[in-house]
Amino acid sequence: MAEEAVYNIEYDNNASINDQWQEICSQLKMEFGETAFDSWLKPLSVSSFDKGIMQISAPTAFMKNWVLAHYSERIHKIWEHKNPEIKKIQIVVQNMMTTKDRASSLNDTSLLKKIKSTPTPQSFYGFSPAANSYYEHDEYLQSKLNPAYTFENFVVGKTNEFAYAAAHKVAESRNVSFNPLFLYSGVGLGKTHLLHAIAQYIQKNDPSRHVVYISAEQFLYKFVNALRYKDTAAFKEQFRSVDVLMIDDVQFLANKEKTQDEFFYTFNSLMEGGRQIILSADKSPNELDGMESRLKSRLNSGLVADIMPTDFDLRLGILQRKAMQMGIDLPQNVAEFLAQKISSNIRELEGSLKRIAAHSQLLSSHEITLDMTQDVLKDMLRSIDRKTTIDEIQKKVSEYFNISVKEMQSSRRARNVARPRQIAMYLAKQLTSRSLPEIGRKFDRDHTTVMHAVRKVEELIVEDASLAESVESLRRSLDN
Ligand code: ADP
Ligand code: MG
After folding, report:
1. Which ligand is nearest the CA of 252, by number?
2. For residues 39 and 62, what is the distance between their CA atoms, to the nearest angstrom?
3. What is the pLDDT of residues 101-158, one digit of tens each?
4. What is the CA(249)–ligand 2 centre distance, in A?
5. Which of 29, 182, 189, 350 is the pocket-test mutation for ligand 1 (most atoms within 8 Å of CB)?
6. All domains of the chain, ordered by start, with CATH?
7. CA of 194 to the centre of ligand 1 (A)
8. Is the pTM above the cut of 0.70?
9. C-alpha pair distances (Å), 450 with each of 18, 63, 288, 402
């Protein structure tokens, strides 16, 4: 195919572009969760592909900018990986379309031509009559709840029992107990699940209480829209009747001062009125960068509960429970294999189970075996195996410089130990996704020492060719 090959949705090649988009959508859904996916990614559609530029349409200017700021880089990464021909992702506003048009846009050639000829990039706060008339002014302050996210479906283990108990307690207390309840954990470990469980529990057992669950992203979106339409009074009014307010992923409000002020105001007035507030974030209140300190201290004033990374037993328990719910027969050795291998988060664990289930349904025997699992998940497993750990780096670097890992982690400052230690820290920063404090902990040091080591090695690489060569050869042996 010639380089300047043009794919338009109305031509045959679109089938594959559309298939790719569907695959990317499932991946995005897995990574960002259902709520974020439904709000921001589902409304997008591919409109054209030309000279390496994939054009994606969003229904409003606001959405376009949002996707651009938060998701387009990731979309590009995933797509580029699938299809190296894709050089750039462009998000455009799909003007003058109704929701129904949007749904059928991929099948409707005439409409598509129209969109293709009128992509109108617009500025964030730019007033756009077209987008304005399209904008569905939705008064409802509530993100969708997933009916499967209940307490019954939540598997409790050592790493999440405290958060579970706190969530359950808040849900069943008629009067305010821990206020606010603040849940935090890394991604895919069950925060959203617990929040939805609380909301659904209250809706069922105490329907007179008005529960609102909203993602911080939606909160921000609605607030910015209210500002834009000079409608902040109505925005505030919506909170007056709320008995239980839940905001998911509040780290999203980092560095958004105006929204934080609004949130702080809402927060205080609800607390003073004796209403329950429940929040989640990916870090503890103290670690939330870009948050005003008065807000941090407010977030800290109730009960803070974290969900720790899963352990093997919990992963196994979750797999068995999900397999049962999905009605699939998951052999013990396959469950153990998956629980062993896929340790990052529960969303990925579920994703792997769904893939195996889908494959088994296509096979005549329907049987899930270890071989079949390894085959179906080979890409995923390869990338897991490839992930370099800090332990490995410490081991390799120690061997290379002929010191022991113990010495590397010790407090000794002699050059022959200190230098390899700095190199190991540098490689850990380069080759893993661990944060400076996390790396520091592995060396029994704090994050400033790691930062210093990284800078030092960067300087040395420029000055000292033989050191540069050692670092390079270590990197090659680790990064394969
Ligand atoms: P987070 O909000 O922390 O990123 P989610 O609540 O979205 O994570 O969880 C990711 C997926 O893992 C969801 O499908 C959820 O149902 C599932 N999950 C998480 N923890 C558990 C658990 N303890 N038991 C059963 N499923 C869980
Ligand atoms: Mg979540």
Report:
1. 2
2. 12
3. 434 433 333 333 333 333 333 322 222 333 332 233 344 677 889 999 999 999 999 9
4. 6
5. 189
6. 2-117 (3.30.300.180), 126-306 (3.40.50.300), 314-385 (1.10.8.60), 390-479 (1.10.1750.10)
7. 8
8. no
9. 45, 39, 21, 21
